[in-house]
C-alpha cells in the first residue's frame, strides 16, 4: 500500500498533530506524517514532531507583514518541495487566502471544535453553553474559501452537561477531536471520502482508531 504524504500545519502545541502521528505509526494506516510546518518558530509541536523523526519547517508569518499571500506562497513552496499530497490543519491560526485554498482544493482538511455549521470562529465552547445546546462536538471538513466551511468529512458529538464550564466541555470535545481526525484523514488518504455535489460520501471507515469516549457519538 502506497501511503499518502501528509503535512500537518500547526501554530501551537499540536495536540491534534500528535493524534495523527500516533495513528500513522500503524503500518496499515493509509497516510504518513511527512512534515510538520508552523507559522511560529516557538510552537511546541515542532519539538514533539522532531522527537518522532518527522521533518519540520517554519515560515514565520511576522516576516510577511501585510502580505498574506506571500506568506502562503512560501508555505506552498515547502509543501511542494516535500512532495506533500494532503495538508491537515491542526490549530493553524491563520486565515487563509484564496491562493492556498485553491492550490490545495480538495486536498486540505481542517478540524474545528464545534458541530458545523454551528459556532464557526472562536470561543466555540462558551458560545455553545450560552446557546443552551444539548450536544456539542467537533468537525473535520475540507477547507474552502470561507472560514470554518467546506464539505464535512466526519463529526463527533458529546452531551452538554448541566454543570459544564467552557473548560470541562472543551476537554471532552478535545477527546473527540483526537478520535475523529485520524479517522477522517484515513478516509481522505484512502480515497474513501468522495466528494459528490460538494458533499462528502464516505465508504467504510478505513481505520478504527481508539474506542469512542463514553457518551460520544462518532460519524462516520
Automatic annotation (TrEMBL):
Domain of life: Bacteria
Enzyme category, top tier: transferase
Annotated EC: 2.1.2.2
Entry keywords, A to Z: Purine biosynthesis, Transferase
Entry keyword Membrane: no
Pfam family, one: Formyl_trans_N
Catalytic activity: N(1)-(5-phospho-beta-D-ribosyl)glycinamide + (6R)-10-formyltetrahydrofolate = N(2)-formyl-N(1)-(5-phospho-beta-D-ribosyl)glycinamide + (6S)-5,6,7,8-tetrahydrofolate + H(+)
Matches recorded under PROSITE patterns: GART
An MF annotation (GO) of this entry: phosphoribosylglycinamide formyltransferase activity
Amino acids binding (6R)-10-formyltetrahydrofolate: 68, 93-96, 110
Gene3D superfamilies: Formyl transferase, N-terminal domain (3.40.50.170)
Pathway this chain belongs to: Purine metabolism; IMP biosynthesis via de novo pathway; N(2)-formyl-N(1)-(5-phospho-D-ribosyl)glycinamide from N(1)-(5-phospho-D-ribosyl)glycinamide (10-formyl THF route): step 1/1
CDD domains attached to this UniProt entry: FMT_core_GART
Site (Raises pKa of active site His): 148
Domain Formyl transferase N-terminal: 4-185
Catalytic-site annotation from UniProt: 112
Amino-acid positions noted as binding N(1)-(5-phospho-beta-D-ribosyl)glycinamide in the UniProt annotation, renumbered to this chain: 14-16
Biological role: Catalyzes the transfer of a formyl group from 10-formyltetrahydrofolate to 5-phospho-ribosyl-glycinamide (GAR), producing 5-phospho-ribosyl-N-formylglycinamide (FGAR) and tetrahydrofolate.
UniProt similarity note: Belongs to the GART family.
Protein name: Phosphoribosylglycinamide formyltransferase
Organism of origin: Roseibium aestuarii
Amino acid at each position: 500500500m502506497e501511503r499518502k504524504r501528509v503535512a500537518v500545519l500547526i501554530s501551537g502545541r499540536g495536540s491534534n498533530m500528535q493524534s495523527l502521528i500516533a495513528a500513522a505509526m500503524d503500518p496499515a494506516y493509509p497516510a504518513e506524517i511527512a512534515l510538520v510546518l508552523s507559522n511560529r518558530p516557538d510552537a511546541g509541536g515542532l519539538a514533539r514532531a522532531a522527537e518522532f523523526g518527522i521533518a519540520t519547517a517554519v515560515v514565520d508569518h511576522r516576516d510577511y507583514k501585510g502580505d498574506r499571500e506571500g506568506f502562503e506562497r512560501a508555505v506552498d513552496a515547502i509543501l511542494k518541495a516535500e512532495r506533500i499530497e494532503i495538508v491537515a490543519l491542526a490549530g493553524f491560526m491563520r486565515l487563509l487566502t484564496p491562493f492556498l485554498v485553491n492550490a490545495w482544493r480538495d486536498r486540505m482538511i481542517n478540524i474545528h471544535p464545534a458541530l458545523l455549521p454551528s459556532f464557526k470562529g472562536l470561543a466555540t465552547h462558551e458560545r455553545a453553553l450560552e446557546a443552551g445546546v444539548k450536544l456539542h462536538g467537533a468537525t473535520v471538513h475540507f477547507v474552502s474559501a470561507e472560514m470554518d466551511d467546506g464539505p464535512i468529512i466526519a463529526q463527533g458529538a458529546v452531551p452538554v452537561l448541566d454543570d459544564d464550564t467552557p473548560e470541562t466541555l472543551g476537554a471532552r470535545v478535545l477527546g473527540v477531536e483526537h478520535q475523529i481526525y485520524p479517522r477522517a484523514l484515513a478516509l481522505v488518504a484512502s480515497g474513501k471520502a468522495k466528494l459528490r455535489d460538494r458533499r462528502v460520501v464516505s465508504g467504510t471507515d478505513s481505520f478504527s482508531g481508539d474506542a469512542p469516549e463514553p457518551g460520544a457519538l462518532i460519524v462516520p
